[in-house]
């Protein structure tokens, strides 16, 4: 703990800009705490925070100078195994938060952390939150831990570690995931199709794309009249029927279907990845 160096703020800066004003506002003197207590507060300030990507945009050089080899190796393996090329800001985000998670695991990790109601979370609870990602991240972790034995120690102390990895990479993976592609046709003509297309494109922040033709084999064809299903017998394209004037229930069904398709696409891609090499 005494050797901890925050990648974004030095101990001197922390003392000058945070501790001293805090003690002055409460009519205390810095002389009332020991150097060890100051180091503890500095450490806790670091590891008890989560840092967003936008928080780190102005500090790339400072972050890069502080890379730890374990965190660096994990980020490299994320790119290699998940076939993603991270931006500099994404790497900085991953490094800083991985470093804090690992430090916390080493110092404060508990095998079975409980919530305010005395309930401890199990793997099934984590997989309920991340039904696709959690089992895949378990495979990733197992492969990386064979090369970095320290990770097994972290996991032994902090059984939420793999779940925390899922939380950490979720937003980045969303930015890199393949879009759900849809095609829409309506008996009410092009104007209705355009209206529905615009609304579908704005109904989610996740990647979604419109296909100009059903021949391009979209993930889902949306129609308000019967179409020839034989054209899609040998494809993964889903046919979705709804009312010519979609109701609230129609939109809810469509949203659920798009989520289902996205999860299956992600699952199909992730299950083909190799986490051994």
Structure, described:
This protein has 277 residues and is of the alpha/beta class. 54% of the residues lie in helices and 6% in strands. It has 11 helices and 4 strands; from the N terminus they run H-H-H-H-H-H-H-H-H-E-H-E-E-E-H. It has helices at 11-25, 35-47, 60-64, 69-82, 88-108, 123-129, 133-147, 150-157, 161-176, 190-201, 248-271, and strands at 180-185, 208-210, 220-223, 238-241. Strands 2-1-3-4 form a 4-stranded parallel β-sheet. Strand 1, helix 10 and strand 2 (208-210) form a beta-alpha-beta unit. The longest helix is centred in the C-terminal third of the chain and has 24 residues, at 248-271. The radius of gyration is 24 Å and the shape is elongated. The two termini are 34 Å apart. The model has no long low-confidence stretch (mean pLDDT 86).
In terms of topology, how is this protein built?
Layout: H1 11-25, H2 35-47, H3 60-64, H4 69-82, H5 88-108, H6 123-129, H7 133-147, H8 150-157, H9 161-176, E1 180-185, H10 190-201, E2 208-210, E3 220-223, E4 238-241, H11 248-271
Parallel strand pairs: 1-2, 1-3, 3-4
Helical segment count: 11
Low-confidence stretches: none
Fraction of residues in helix = 40-55%
Q: Based on CA inertia axes, which overall geometry fits?
A: elongated
Kindly report the spatial arrangement of strands forming the biggest sheet: 2-1-3-4
What is the alpha-carbon Rg in Å?
Answer: 24 Å
Structural class: alpha/beta
In percent, how much strand structure appears in the residues? 5-15%
The count of β-strands is 4
What is the rounded distance between the termini? Answer: 34 Å
* Rounded mean pLDDT score: 86
**Secondary-structure element sequence?**
HHHHHHHHHEHEEEH
Protein name: Mga helix-turn-helix domain-containing protein
């Amino acid at each position: 703990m005494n050797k901890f160096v925050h990648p974004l703020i030095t101990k001197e800066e922390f003392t000058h800009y945070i501790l001293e004003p805090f003690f002055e506002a409460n009519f205390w003197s810095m002389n009332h705490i020991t150097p060890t207590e100051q180091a503890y507060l500095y450490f806790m300030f670091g590891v008890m925070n989560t840092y967003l990507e936008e928080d780190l945009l102005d500090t790339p050089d400072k972050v890069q100078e502080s890379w730890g080899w374990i965190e660096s190796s994990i980020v490299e393996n994320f790119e290699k195994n998940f076939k993603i090329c991270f931006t500099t800001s994404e790497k900085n985000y991953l490094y800083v938060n991985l470093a804090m998670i690992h430090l916390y695991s080493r110092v404060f990790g508990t095998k079975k952390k409980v919530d305010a109601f005395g309930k401890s979370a199990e793997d099934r609870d984590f997989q309920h939150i991340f039904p696709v990602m959690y089992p895949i991240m378990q495979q990733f972790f197992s492969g990386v831990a064979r090369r970095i034995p320290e990770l097994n120690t972290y996991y032994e102390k902090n059984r939420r570690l793999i779940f925390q990895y899922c939380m950490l990479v979720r937003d980045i993976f969303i930015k890199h995931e393949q879009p759900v592609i849809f095609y829409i046709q309506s008996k009410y003509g092009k104007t209705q199709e355009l209206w529905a297309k615009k609304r579908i494109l704005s109904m989610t922040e996740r990647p979604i794309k419109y296909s100009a033709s059903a021949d391009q084999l979209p993930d889902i064809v949306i129609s308000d009249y019967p179409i020839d299903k034989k054209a899609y017998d040998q494809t993964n394209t889903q046919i979705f029927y709804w009312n010519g004037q979609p109701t609230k229930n129609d939109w809810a069904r469509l949203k659920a279907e798009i989520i289902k398709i996205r999860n299956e696409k992600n699952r199909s891609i992730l299950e083909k990845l190799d986490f051994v090499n």
